Structure formats: structure tokens, C-alpha cells
Amino acid sequence: MSPPIFGITGWKNSGKTTLTERLIAVFTGRGYRVCAVKHAHESFDIDQPGRDSYRLREAGARRVLLSSPKRWALVHELAGDPEMPLDWLLGEAAGFDLILIEGYKREPFPKIEIRRDGTSSRQPLAGSAPQIVAIASDRPSEETDGLPVFHLDDIGGMADFITAHLRLGAARR
Known about the structure:
Blueprint: E1 5-9, H1 16-29, E2 34-38, H2 52-58, E3 63-67, E4 72-76, H3 86-90, E5 98-102, E6 111-115, E7 132-137, E8 149-151, H4 155-166
Parallel strand pairs: 1-5, 1-6, 2-5, 6-7, 7-8
Antiparallel strand pairs: 3-4
């Protein structure tokens, strides 16, 4: 069974990563084991030129596994194959209490939309995306079509909302 999923969405430079980071800190502080999924731009790279793993990938390895006593990582080069579907990626999240997803605006799971003054001239997403169930904003008095609205600094309130919305059980410390 897949862990409960909740998303953070918004337009570019709205603060999605910062909000996701702050929510992860609250949930882990409450004892939940959190998996984070971030939809990145096509050109992202976690490997650094000159590092051993980068050299192995550049030599043609389609998959490089790195392991140490503190962490492990998997780098899989798609080499022209299509992007992995979100459902497949979520299969990698077994054993967690909560999955927080940054991005994936149109995927069907509940989300908080970030709206920040001056970061985008684009229209709010909530009207066209029924999976948005709340708003986080630096101007919380704005019209939000009846959705719950939180100030961007009310991280505890958002975490409480997510906990109730997903009906999360007690954390497994």
C-alpha cells in the first residue's frame, strides 16, 4: 500500500521548495517518515563533473548506484527513453508515512497552491485544478474561491491541515 500523498504546487519561483522543506521539518519533527518527490526541469543533474559517479555515467553506464555507511543514491540515465511515470516513482516510496510532492501541477492528488505577490503574472491554478484543496499565500486576505488559506509562515497550521485532510495516523517514532 502506498503512503498518503500531498503536493505543493505553484508557478516558478513562488517558493515551492522552501515550503516543502519547512513542511518536511515539521512532519519529521512530529515523528513521521517523509519521502520527498520533486519534479525537476529537464536539464537538472545531481552528479558533478569530475566525481567518480559522473565519470562512470559519462562512460556510458545507464545506471550508477552509490553507497556509503550514511546514504545511498541511484542515478539512472534515461538516454532518450521517456520520463518515468509518477506512479512508478511512488513505488520507490514504500515504508514511509507520508509523501510530499513538489510540482506535478496536473496530477490527481491533493495539493496546496502557493501564491506569492510579485512572483508571477499567471492566473491562479485552483480554478482549473480541482485537486488544489488549500492556498498558501503572502496575502492571505485575497479571494480564494472558498478554499482554506494559510499565511506562508503558518507551517504548523498547514501541517495540521494536511494531517487532517489525509487522516494521517500517529507517527511511528
